[in-house]
Design goal:
- The structure is a single chain.
- By secondary structure, this protein is of the alpha/beta class.
- Helix content is 30%, strand content 21%.
- The protein contains 12 helices and 16 strands.
- The strands form 5 sheets. Strands 4-3-5-2-6-8 form a 6-stranded parallel beta sheet, with helices on both faces.
- A hairpin with a 4-residue loop joins strand 15 and strand 16.
Length: 457
C-alpha cells in the first residue's frame, strides 16, 4: 500500500469519525481541536442548505492546513444538495486507489452490464458487500439496480452504513426521513435505495457502532451485522452497502485494522462476495487517473460495467470477472464518465459575492447541467426547474417529495441554486410529487403539485 493510499485511508477514517461526532454517535479522539470546534458549530445545523452556507462562510477563514475535513464535509453536503459535479471537484483528495499492474486487454476481456453479471455471480451466495464513495452518489446507481435482482435471487436482509437505530418506524412507514440516519441519507439516491429496499420486502439493518478507533469501528460493525442477521436467522442472505474499505476481505487499506467484511466472514463462516466500485470512476478533474481513462477508452464504458473473461484463463485463475486486486475484492466495477461534467482541469472558479458568502462560479460551464446518469437508464425523467423559483433568495433548494410521503421525507431529487440565471432539472420516476422551494433558514418559499407521467403518455 502506497504512502498516499495510507493517507487516504486515514483521512477517510477521520471523515467517518467526524460524521459520527456530528451526529452525536461518538466522541472521536482523533479529531483535531480546530475541526472539533467547526463541528460543534455545524452540529445544530440539521438542514443541508444551512450547513452548506456555514461551510462556505467558514472555509475561507480556516488556515490551509486545517481545511481538509471542512472541504470533505462541503463536498458531501454538495452531493446531498444535488450539486454532484461540484462535489467531485471540491473533494480535497483522490479517493481512488492507484493501479500500476498491466491493464486488461480487449483481446481477453469484454465489458458487460454490471448488475446482471454480479447478480449471477451472487447466485447461491449468502453475503454480498458493495462499497461507495460517500461524496459521489454515482457509486449508488449500481446498488439500486442490484436490489431487485438480489431480492429475486432470495436475499432477505439489506444493511446500509448510513442507517441509524433510532428510527424504529422506518419499516412500517416505508421511506426514510431526515432523522433516519446520518447526513449521508439526505442524498436523494441513497434515500431511494432505502425506499426501494423496503418496497421489495428486504429487512433493513442498521449496523453502525460507537467507537473512537478504526479497529473498534470495523469489528463493531461486523459484530452488529452478525448478531442482527446471521446469528438469529440461519437462513438469512445479506446484501451490505458500505463505504470504501469496509468491504475488503483482508487488511491493507485501513492500515493494521481488519476490515468489517473480513471480520464478518470470520464470525459467520460465510465468504463475502466483495464488489469494489470506488477505484475506477470519474473524480476531481484536476487529479488524472491514467488507468481509469485507459479502461474507458479501451472498453467504451457507457454504463456501470464489469469485465468478463473471453480468453482462456492463466493456470490457477478461474474468476470469470476481473478484479484489480483479488485479495481484497472479487469484482471491480468501472463507472462511466459523466458526459455533462466539465473536463477542463485548468478551469478555475471566480468568486461571486452573495450576502456574506463568496460563491464559486465556474466560467464557460453550464452549472445547472446535471450528470447524465441521473436518468437511471431512462427510468427517471427530467423536470425543468430554474433559479427564478428562489424568488431572489440565494442559496435556495428546489426539491421534489413524493406526494404520499411526509414533509420530513428524504427528497426524490433536489437541486440547490446558488445564484440567479441558472437553469437545471430534477430527475424523477413517474409519480405524484410536491415541488418545494426552501431557503437556507428552512423557510418554504413556495410549494405546488407536480405529476410526472410515463414517457409517451
Amino acid at each position: 500500500m502506497t504512502t498516499g493510499h495510507v493517507k487516504l485511508s486515514r483521512m477517510a477514517a477521520v471523515l467517518c469519525a467526524a460524521v459520527l461526532l456530528l451526529s452525536g454517535t461518538v466522541q472521536a479522539n482523533e479529531i483535531a481541536p480546530s475541526t472539533r470546534a467547526m463541528l460543534q458549530d455545524l452540529k445544530p445545523l440539521t438542514d443541508d442548505l444551512a450547513r452548506y452556507r456555514y461551510l462556505m462562510a467558514v472555509m475561507r477563514k480556516l488556515p490551509k492546513d486545517e481545511q481538509l475535513v471542512a472541504m470533505q464535509f462541503l463536498a458531501t453536503t454538495e452531493s446531498e444538495l444535488g450539486l454532484y459535479a461540484r462535489a467531485l471537484r471540491d473533494f480535497p483528495i483522490d479517493s481512488r486507489k492507484n493501479f500500476t499492474d498491466p491493464l486488461p486487454s480487449p483481446a481477453q476481456w469484454r465489458a458487460i452490464d454490471a448488475a446482471p453479471a454480479i447478480a449471477q455471480l451472487a447466485a447461491g451466495r449468502r453475503l454480498v458487500v458493495i462499497n461507495e464513495a460517500h461524496h459521489d452518489p454515482h457509486t449508488r446507481e449500481l446498488t439500486l439496480a442490484l436490489l431487485p435482482r438480489l431480492r429475486a435471487a432470495g436475499f432477505t436482509h439489506f444493511a446500509m452504513e448510513a442507517l441509524g437505530d433510532k428510527d424504529t418506524a422506518l419499516s412500517a412507514r416505508g421511506y426514510p426521513v431526515w432523522t433516519s440516519g446520518s447526513e449521508y441519507l439526505h442524498e436523494p439516491l441513497l434515500g431511494e435505495i432505502a425506499r426501494k429496499a423496503l418496497q421489495l420486502g428486504f429487512v433493513l439493518v442498521p449496523y453502525e457502532v460507537d467507537s473512537t478507533t478504526t479497529e473498534g469501528r470495523e469489528s463493531g460493525q461486523a459484530e452488529n451485522l452478525y448478531k442482527r442477521v446471521f446469528a438469529g436467522h440461519p437462513e438469512a442472505r445479506l446484501f451490505v452497502h458500505a463505504g470504501y474499505a469496509h468491504i475488503d476481505k483482508v487488511r491493507g487499506r485501513l492500515g493494521s485494522a481488519i476490515p468489517m467484511a473480513a471480520t464478518l466472514a470470520r464470525l459467520s463462516g460465510i465468504e463475502p462476495l466483495s464488489i469494489e466500485q470506488t477505484q475506477f470512476r470519474e473524480a476531481n478533474p484536476t487529479v488524472p487517473h491514467a488507468s481509469y481513462d485507459q479502461l474507458i477508452d479501451s472498453f467504451r464504458i457507457n454504463a456501470p460495467s464489469v469485465l468478463e473473461r473471453i480468453a482462456p484463463a492463466a493456470a490457477g485463475t478461474t474468476a470469470p470477472l476481473w478484479s484489480a486486486d483479488p485479495s481484497l475484492h472479487d469484482v471491480s466495477v468501472i463507472l462511466p464518465p459523466d458526459r455533462n461534467s466539465p473536463k477542463n482541469a485548468n478551469i478555475m472558479p471566480t468568486w461571486q459575492e452573495q450576502g456574506d458568502l463568496f460563491i464559486p462560479v465556474m466560467p464557460s460551464t453550464d452549472e445547472g447541467l446535471r450528470p447524465d446518469w441521473l436518468g437511471l437508464n431512462g427510468q427517471r425523467q427530467p423536470f425543468a426547474v430554474n433559479s427564478d423559483l428562489c424568488e431572489r433568495i440565494y442559496p435556495c433548494v428546489v426539491e421534489a417529495i413524493y406526494a404520499k410521503e411526509s414533509d420530513q421525507a428524504v427528497a426524490a431529487d433536489r437541486f440547490a441554486f446558488l445564484r440567479s440565471g441558472v437553469r437545471s432539472a430534477l430527475y424523477l420516476f413517474p409519480d405524484e410529487y410536491r415541488l418545494r422551494v426552501r431557503d437556507a433558514d428552512g423557510k418554504v418559499l413556495s410549494e405546488r403539485a407536480v405529476t410526472i407521467s410515463k414517457q409517451g403518455k
